[in-house]
Amino acid sequence: PQDQGGHPLLVTGRHGEGRTPVWTSDIGPHWLPNSFVEWPGYARLWTNVLRWVSNTV
Fold first, then answer.
1. Domain annotation covers residue 2
2. What is the domain count for the chain?
3. CB 3.0 to 4.6 Å from 31: which of 11, 19, 26, 27, for a disulfide?
4. Would you place residue 57 in the very low, low, confident or very high pLDDT band (cuts 50, 70, 90)?
5. Rounded to 5 degrees, what angle do the CA atoms 35, 40, 42 make?
6. pLDDT for 12-22, tens place per residue?
């Protein structure tokens, strides 16, 4: 949202039956702080993104 800086980290979209996530950064520690990569919810985030994309949610 623009009132929160307007720079989303994760954006999702749909086209027909397809789903697309766009992660606007690197998923490794090159761009993300180690605290995010080491966050206990990190693996769950990516599991949920992949489930959503594959429509197995």
1. no
2. 1
3. 26
4. low
5. 80
6. 999 888 999 99
Residue 5 lies in a domain: no
- Does 50 score more than 70 pLDDT? yes
pTM for the full model? 0.70
- For the chain, the C-alpha Rg in angstroms (whole number) is 13
Whether 28 is covered by a domain: the verdict is yes
The average confidence (pLDDT) of the chain is 85
> Do residues 12 and 21 touch, judged by C-beta distance below 8 A?
yes
Domain of 41, in residue numbers: 20-57
Please tell me the distance from the alpha carbon of residue 24 to that of residue 54, in angstroms, as a whole number: 20
Under 8 Å between Cβ of 28 and 38:
no
